[in-house]
Amino acid sequence: MGIPTLRLSTPSATDDRPDEPLLLDRFGRVARDLRISITEKCSLRCTYCMPAEGLPAIAPEKLLSAAEIARVVGIAVHRLGIQDVRFTGGEPLVRRDLVDIVARCSAAAPGVSMAMTTNAIGLDRRARSLAEAGLTRVNVSLDTVDRRHFETLTRRDRLPAVMAGIDGALAEGLSPVKINAVLMPETLHGATDLLAWCLDRGVRLRFIEQMPLDADHEWDRSSMVDAETLLDVLGRRFDLTEVGRDDPSAPAEEWEVDGGPSTVGIIASVTRSFCSDCDRTRLTAEGTVRSCLFSDTETDIRGALRGGATDEEIADLWRGAMWNKWAGHGIDAEGFEPPARSMGAIGG
Ligand SMILES: Nc1nc2c(ncn2[C@@H]2O[C@H](COP(=O)(O)OP(=O)(O)OP(=O)(O)O)[C@@H](O)[C@H]2O)c(=O)[nH]1
Ligand SMILES: C[S@@+](CC[C@H](N)C(=O)[O-])C[C@H]1O[C@@H](n2cnc3c(N)ncnc32)[C@H](O)[C@@H]1O
Ligand code: SF4
Ligand code: SF4
To answer: Which residues make up the binding site for [4Fe-4S] cluster 1 (predicted)?
Structure first.
């Protein structure tokens, strides 16, 4: 069965592209941030992301190897101007050769920031080897500090393992450690406790508006917890002062908490979309480029990687894919359809 198949983009749509090495699109944006999904597998089953049974397995021969991922990173950094690399999934820690992937990518692109987005299960045991391999920092998904709610939301009773993973990351200096919390109506009342916990641990919390990328297609705008509702709830316990974005392409807007210096972020992808400043490009675990989370097409580079293409030929395929990037996600547009892949299959 495998991950749903998408339409592959047509290279002919690049005739009007200027002859420029960087990853430009028609809307004047330049992609500098590469997000690489390395697996579809996961140790959790968050309801807003995965189906209860997990995603259909990718056939082993379709998965990019550590060496192939490192080659792609080298091309992205040296030919296409990528400045930041992030490993995601699925759950990157589920992949046994993760340390090897990080080490090879660091060697292919010395000095480039290598981050990981993770649920942190097992990170306490692997944080040191990952840091030694060149991992710079981690963002950890944690939606609630209430064990019962955590189990309901993720369909697994693993809150203590996540907390141990966060401590492990802090102990190994994989910092700043940022926490990502997707809010659901049933966990909204726990948002202030989560913020208090993060302030106490010295980690940077960001709340995220749920996007229509759940595998079960149950997202409904009317039940989504939006930034405005969340600010209202947080404001009842904390004094918040808006400070804006770290940089124009950062998804999170920041608020100072109780006079600072600690902050809380909100990633309001739906109600305060940041698509006009987007600097992202994505590589799926099977080696296709996605220009946007919500794309309905992908550009295969695995075939080129394995078919003897030169680095420059692969770079050109990628440039073409990004030139055709949409203006934005279009969630508010009439006739909007979510992509065939869910968040866990794209690589969030
Ligand atoms: N709309 C939109 N949302 C995104 C995109 N990438 C990530 N997100 C959302 O932002 C959340 C946080 O993403 P992270 O993987 O932690 O990355 P980040 O926030 O860009 O990373 P930092 O550089 O550490 O701030 C994800 O859980 C998604 O919900 C994107 O390209 N578009
Ligand atoms: C797909 S996960 C992959 C990495 C890792 N397993 C994790 O959870 O951090 C990446 C990010 O996507 C976010 N995410 C998943 N489904 C989402 C959705 N429907 N809307 C918004 N963010 C979502 C998660 O909260 C997480 O921060
Ligand atoms: S959000 Fe991350 S941890 Fe949760 S199911 Fe999706 S991939 Fe797994
Ligand atoms: S939805 Fe697409 S265009 Fe908007 S920020 Fe995400 S990747 Fe960029």
So the answer is: 42, 46, 49
